[in-house]
């Protein structure tokens, strides 16, 4: 039995800005957003405010449409997906790369705030 290469990731954090919905040249919808993940120590206590990682996420088609419609800056999410490395050359011929998360599942964890009704 052989094991396939694996690049699965689970992130639990908050959006740093509103999601951005775009349409590709071939007509597919893709929504991009960034998730900030606060790190904690082994006891579950948060570390310094500077101990945060930022992950770029792309969500395609219906999943992306839902993210664009229902998420906003500050929304708490759990993202599950695969890592994808994009590579390109600059105009100066330098090699560049960026790793993104391609979401397969996005769980919307924020609670809707219920407005108190005046009596």
Automatic annotation (TrEMBL):
InterPro entries: NA-bd_OB-fold, Primosome_PriB/ssb, ssDNA-bd. Keywords: DNA-binding. PROSITE patterns: SSB (PS50935). It holds the Pfam family SSB. One of its GO terms (molecular function) is DNA binding. Homotetramer. This is Single-stranded DNA-binding protein. The lineage of its organism: Bacteria, Pseudomonadati, Spirochaetota, Spirochaetia, Leptospirales. The gene is ssb_1.
């Amino acid at each position: 039995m052989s094991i396939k290469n694996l690049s699965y990731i689970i992130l639990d954090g908050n959006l740093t800005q509103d999601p951005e919905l775009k349409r590709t040249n071939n007509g597919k919808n893709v929504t991009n957003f960034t998730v900030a993940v606060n790190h904690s120590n082994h006891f579950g206590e948060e570390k310094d405010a500077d101990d945060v990682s930022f992950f770029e996420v792309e969500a395609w088609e219906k999943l992306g449409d839902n993210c664009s419609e229902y998420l906003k800056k500050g929304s708490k999410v759990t993202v599950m997906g695969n890592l994808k490395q994009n590579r390109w050359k600059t105009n100066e011929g330098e090699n560049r790369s960026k790793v993104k998360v391609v979401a397969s599942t996005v769980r919307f964890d924020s609670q809707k705030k219920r407005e108190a009704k005046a009596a």
